[in-house]
Amino acid sequence: MKHLLVLTLLLGISISINAQITYSGQIKDHNLDPIDGVSIQSSTNPSNGVATNILGEFTIALKQPKVLITAIGYQTVAVTLKSSGNIIILEQSQEELQEVIVSASREAQKRAEIPGAISVITAARLEELKPFGIEQIINQAPGVFMSTSVASGNEQHMTSVRSPISTKSLFLYLEDGIPIRPTAVFNHNALLEMNDVSFNRVEVLKGPASSIYGSESIGGSFNFITKNPSRNFSGSLGFQINDLGLSKYTLEVSNYANKNFGYYLGSQYTQRNNGPLGHSDYEKFATTFKTVYHFDSSTSWINTFDLIDYRTDTSGSLTESDYHSGEYLSDQTFTERSAKAFRLKSTLNKYWNDRNKTTFNIIFRDNQTNQIPSYRIRQFREQGLLTGKGEGEINSDRFQSIVGLVQHKTDFNFANASLILGSSIDYSPQRYQAQTITVTVDTQSGINQAYQINQGSYILNYEADILNYAGYLQFEFNPLTNLKFTTALRYDGFNYDYDNQLDGQKGAADAVNDYNNFSPKIGLNYNFSRNSGLYINYSNGFSPPQTSTLYRNKYVEIDGQIHGLKPSKYNNYELGGYLSTNRMKIDLALYVLDGNNTLVTLRNEQDQYYNANAGKTRSYGVEYGIGYHISQELKITHNGSFAKHRYLEFYDSGVDYSDSDMETAPQLLGITQLNYTPSILEKLNLGLEYEMVGSYNTSLENQRENQNGSWGTATYGGHHIFNLTGSYKWRNLEIWVHVLNIFDRLYSTRASFNVYTNENNYESGGPRAFHLGIRYKF
After folding, report:
1. pLDDT tens per residue, range 548-583
2. For the chain, what percentages of helix, strand and coil (3-state, to nearest 5) are there?
3. Closest by alpha carbon to 507, among 444, 460, 567?
4. Does residue 766 register a pLDDT over 70?
5. How many CA atoms lie within 13 A of 396 on its CB side?
């Protein structure tokens, strides 16, 4: 009996010591939207922890109610839980380096865990910028330059990231982690097929990201992340106008209709009439509709619809004499481009438990681009005089895509390890047609007045079934507390089934072209503290030939076979670091990008464009971003780069251009911004922006013939432009003003050399202009 009493007493003590109470609650942000993936960890027993589900809910059994709550992008808090009614609001972290990043792996990570140069333009920064063009967003990232003619103002653009300013397939444009176009149908103007009203944030990953995304993600990957539905009904009406002929109307509506179903709608209509550059009118309608449905706490279904209807005049570049005289005239009257794009992305997220998540994606694309390109127009001359005739082309390019992508992530219970496995298949049938046109030219003014389609006179007429299949993996772990190791590998296979509809008449014979590539990546992060660290990485990138480039290349018609173009491959070596304090933020990256079979566009003496592999190239430089809060009211940021872009081995038309600078490749790029928010008027924000583009060669070295018969190199001297911005919020109303090019400088967003005329052509920047915007939020 005595032993039984002792045993009962010990059992009671044991139960009392180990008794746990179950606590539950919900975690939200300052907008009262639920936050998933938040870690709730016992303060007395760190091994006891759970994560919130899609609805921000959690349940945890504890002996002591004190917990530590952490989430990527939010401030860490210590909380004592109550027996019921635990609604916890987290505030976003001001330490931007600890923001959530998804572009490096399609999964949420801290910036300090990514061994690569990545820049984020946050929702708060977008609100501050009030951009009226996508280039204003993109150019916030160090080492990035998107050139678009302010004078023509029609969203057409060229890009430079660790490369010359070019139209080549060196950049990948993504929406919510999915490419907006298939491989082999790249368009350097593809961003005009997007809706900037719907952007919540933009992530720019510089250098090759082929280990996750595949081909074309070489110089940089641009991930435009769309807005999510808000828990409470909200929206806005906006209007913008400037004295360059632009007007823009915007509408947004967002809400959760009930606990499980939410929607977001963002639309815009933009038009341009009678701008300073002749023949530069354009119109664009874009809408994005996104729905989120939570089946339960572990399963969500997201659908995003995009519809873009775009048409623009294409004025072409200015001649050297027109540019320097400020004559913003165009030789064109009928050249144009139109694009209709529809995209549907359906995503199912399934959390099997707190360590395993699978994402299933199905994507459908339907895109058609029609154009009479200004750069294909040739005017005929005899003894240097216009004959009144010319030629050009009218073309149509359409593709439809069905894409499947599945990705699974597993977190292991050792060394903070995780494994990502993924596979994708993209089937995109393409139809391309190009016919010749006869052009009527005014011999006095040189203006192309009219055209006539030469029916049946095809340059190309083909169908191509494009298939891309891929598998990839990425493994990460911490061998030491402050050291993170990342490695990844992807395999891509490509099949182009080309069917010439003009057998025996034009173009290459029917063909099946296959390409494949393994893309490895390896990187290390060492973090000295929460806000400082170093990284080093190696990554591989590649780009197979585009179908339109491959099948219309100048070598195509040699024996009716396809010759001359090979996939471009790149090796990237990078060392970088980051530092953040209460008042200062620094990002720095040193890189070397070696290219093999780099594809370049050349122009022959008959004023015709053609493509060629450039042998070997090397781009190397430093990218830097610096932000400093001079005071609570005043802050300054500077993003820039210094780089060299060289041909290591390159021959053209028997001339050796090895060991020379590449064209349209500025060494210096930079944007400096000064923002002032007076404490006595906190809703007022004033900004001064300075944009600097350094000088660069526009021709190959010693390609330009001088007046004395010697040979030299054509150049562009670069430019220095200042802009002013101001915005004010009053209750639900916002108003802002931009003054562009305040000193009215003559400048070009891109200059190139024309071997046919032996002079530069210029994409004009534009005169001083005033831009006004107003928006009402509800």
Report:
1. 878 875 444 444 445 557 888 999 999 999 998 888
2. 10, 60, 35
3. 460
4. yes
5. 10
Q: Using the predicted structure, report yes or no on whether residue 344 has a pLDDT greater than 70.
A: yes
Are 427 and 473 contacting, i.e. CB atoms less than 8 angstroms apart?
no
Q: Is the pLDDT of residue 728 over 60?
A: yes
- Taking the C-alpha atoms of residue 543 and residue 597, their distance in angstroms, rounded to an integer, is 10
Q: How confident is the model at residue 454 (pLDDT cuts 50, 70, 90)?
A: very high
How far is Cα of residue 689 from the mean position of the Cα atoms in its chain?
A: 22
Q: What is the pLDDT of residues 10-53, one digit of tens each?
A: 445 444 445 688 899 999 887 777 888 788 988 888 778 888 88
Question: Which residues in 373-447 belong to E strands, given as ranges?
Answer: 378-382, 385-411, 418-441
3-class SS of residue 138: helix
Tokens coding 746: 């003559």
Three-state DSSP at 52 gives: coil
Residue 16 CB partners (closer than 8 Å, separation 6+):
none
- How far is 537 from 548, CA to CA, in rounded Å? 34
* Residue 356 in tokens: 């395993």
Please compute the mean of the pLDDT values over residues 108-128 and round it to a whole number. Answer: 87
d(CA 32, CA 45): 29
Q: What is the pTM of this model?
A: 0.88
* Burial group, residue 772, by CB count within 10 angstroms (0-12, 13-18, 19+): middle
CA distance 203 to 176: 10
| Other beta carbons less than 10 A from residue 308's beta carbon | 20
Q: Phi/psi of residue 564, each to 5°? A: 90, -20
Mean pLDDT for the stretch of residues 628-649: 94
φ/ψ (deg, to 5) at 10: -65, -40
Contacts (Cβ under 8 Å, ≥6 apart) of 529: none
Q: For residue 325, what pLDDT is reported?
A: 84
Residues contacting residue 771 through CB under 8 Å, at least 6 positions apart: 132, 240, 241, 242, 246, 737, 738, 739, 740
Contacts of 378 (CB under 8 A, 6+ apart): 390, 391, 392, 606, 607, 608
- Do the Cβ atoms of 330 and 280 come closer than 8 Å? yes
- CB atoms < 10 A from the CB of 451, how many? 20
The size of the chain, in residues, is 778
pLDDT digits (tens, 9 = 90+) for 638-647: 999 999 999 9
Encoded amino acid at 662, one letter? M
Q: DSSP of 315-369, one letter per residue?
A: --PEEHHHHHHT----S-SS-EEEEEEEEEEEEEEEEEETTEEEEEEEEEEEEEE
DSSP collapsed to 3 states, 161-223: ECCCCECCCCEEEEECCEECCCCCCCCCCHHHHCCHHHEEEEEEEECCCHHHHCCCCCCEEEE
Q: Is 9 helix (H, G, I), strand (E, B) or coil?
A: helix
Determine the average pLDDT of the residues in 417-425: 96
177 phi-psi bin (left φ>0, alpha ψ -120 to 50, beta other): left
Give the C-alpha separation, 261 to 762, whole Å.
51
User: Cα separation of 337 and 187, whole Å?
Assistant: 12
Q: How confident is the model at residue 419 (pLDDT cuts 50, 70, 90)?
A: very high
Task: Please tell me the number of Cα atoms within 13 Å of 204 on its side-chain side.
Answer: 24
